[in-house]
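Please predict the structure of the following assembly.
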Amino acid sequence: MPTTTIAVNQDVLAAKKQRAKEQRQLFTTQGTFVINLVSSPGAGKTSLLQATARYWQNRFRVGVLVGDLATDRDAGRLRPYVPVEQLTTGGACHLELSLVQQGLSRLPQQQYDFLFIENIGNLVCPASHDLGEHVRVVVLSTTEGDDKPGKYPKMFRTSQAMVISKSDLLPYVPFSVEAAIQDARLIQPDLVTILTSSTRDEGLQDWCQFLEDARKEMLASRDADAAEQLTASEKSVA
Amino acid sequence: MHEESLIRSLLRQVEELAQQHHARAVDEIEVEVGPLSGVEPLLLQDAFERLKDEFSWPRAELSVLQVGLDVLCQSCQSESQLKDFRFVCHQCGSTSLKIIRGDAFRLLNVSMQVDDSFNGKPQATATQHSTDACGLPLNEQTSHP
């Protein structure tokens, strides 16, 4: 029987990436700016979201999808502030788009200005999975050490912003903010960095401004694309 | 670890491909990983060994090609291979580098035994896998707009 070799030469995740791209386009059309929040366990993702919701109060429609291996503790912490849906992975180390889409369909209201996806606490596997987000933000807490970016290059390379959390603990821990930023920017030169303390509401203005600006940029580029398409179709009619 | 979920995706694609080509057996699956693929070759092999009994071709072998991290400088257009994760162009010092290889988990080739009567030709109705079905830029895994 003849043996044949089929050349495929394709990213194994290509189909999943395409679905994520389509989901991102849908979010953009709806005006929903989506943030994939990643970190190691205990870095303060949920606390940052609580503080963010408090800071914005009723200025924006905010929704949260929160992933956890077990329990809905994080969802419980966020429920007093914002509509939140728990994604329980039952042991899986990362979220995938299909889980996010399931969670979306369960969220009470369908229109959001900002949708946060709180990923599983893990600096490795979530780096490989596009969830249809507009930005990936990695949270690094001052108690984890300033040498983390170099140890988890893929996560920092694929993130657009880094929040250094728990700034209130800086006097007590051997963490250099400059060293962490320098280390991260070797891997991702364009990384936006923001220093926060969720318990003291420090840096929240910078954080929220970053998100508001990024959303405005998304809307402006969406509207420019729509106008361009309209002009093109008018030309083709003429 | 997510290697199992990646192997499941891989095996699904190989199953489809084998069906399209009327394969009698799949001998070898060749994949490529690099320093920023987010995949550990040893764990990938382990996951493959664990899962291949669920696959129609349990005698298939996985061959993992490890490549370096190749980048293209957006400033001086030179290509180079990074030895560590410092994203600085060796030629001009620019930090604006695009990854062209080494950040994905890619299926390269599938060797299979085919029936003489079909001679390895895919079914007319099947989609050709040798082209990029999605028209995606395959490098730089999450380059968001």
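The first strand of chain B starts at residue 23 and ends at 33. Chain B touches chain A through 51 residues (CB under 8 Å).
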